[in-house]
Write a structure and sequence with these properties.
The protein is mainly beta and 208 residues long. The protein has two helices and twelve strands. A six-stranded antiparallel β-sheet has the order 1-8-2-4-5-6. The protein has a four-stranded antiparallel β-sheet with strand order 9-10-11-12, with no helix packed on it. A two-stranded antiparallel sheet has the order 3-7. A hairpin with a 4-residue loop joins strand 11 (190-196) and strand 12. The two termini are 20 Å apart.
């Protein structure tokens, strides 16, 4: 996933930042610890994963930034983050909660994603290979779609709470190239989102 520059804040595309898309009537997710609304981080159009299946919907990701470091937003089951799967049809911008500063709800920039294929299966080596071959900084890499997680710490692949099978990786995310508007994964970390599409369940965590 390569940084492709600005994009419309409500684009129905794989992107970081902007406003989340969701079915009408969806409530803005709140942290179960502090009860405050979470910050929207990114969305992934699942069709971008390939496989010849269309209309797979989108995955939207949130994490609590009301008091960074206090609500365990790095853990998949702490209630400090949320990964939600939505169908592709009937999506619209999710209304923001009243009376909450926008910088607590939204990132400071919206970044489109261009997808490139690198034959190297190791994510870290693939980033280096792409950067060297395209005369770009490695900070232009925003993550990967699918594949195998490049864990910073130990393997934390979650199981689906419905069917108990291990969830496949949907997206691995870097914080982003602009530190003033970046996602907060501990300042030097990366995030991982998994989903069991048949069960409609998803989980999110980060490591640093």
């Amino acid at each position: 996933m390569i940084d492709a520059g600005p994009v419309a804040s409500a684009a129905q595309a794989t992107r970081t930042g902007g406003v989340p898309l969701a079915p009408a009537g969806t409530p803005w997710p709140c942290c179960t610890s502090c009860k405050g609304p979470m910050q929207f981080l990114a969305q992934v159009v699942l069709d971008d994963l390939g496989g010849g299946i269309e209309g797979r919907g989108i995955l939207v990701l949130f994490a609590c930034q009301n008091d960074p470091g206090m609500c365990s937003d790095w853990e998949p089951d702490s209630g400090g983050n949320r990964a939600l799967l939505f169908p592709a049809d009937g999506l619209q911008p999710l209304p923001q909660p009243d009376g909450v500063d926008e910088d607590r709800l939204l990132l400071g920039s919206v970044r489109a994603v261009s997808l490139v294929h690198v034959d190297e299966p190791d994510y870290d080596k693939a980033c280096e290979e792409w950067s060297a071959g395209n005369d770009h900084s490695a900070s232009s890499v925003l993550g990967q779609l699918g594949g195998s997680p490049a864990w910073i710490q130990g393997d934390e692949t979650p199981s689906c709470p419905s069917c108990a099978t291990l969830m496949p990786l949907i997206v691995q995310l870097e914080e982003g190239p602009d530190h003033s508007t970046a996602m907060n994964f501990g300042g030097c970390g990366g995030a991982y989102a998994f989903a069991c599409e048949p069960c409609g369940r998803a989980k999110f965590l980060w490591q640093c």
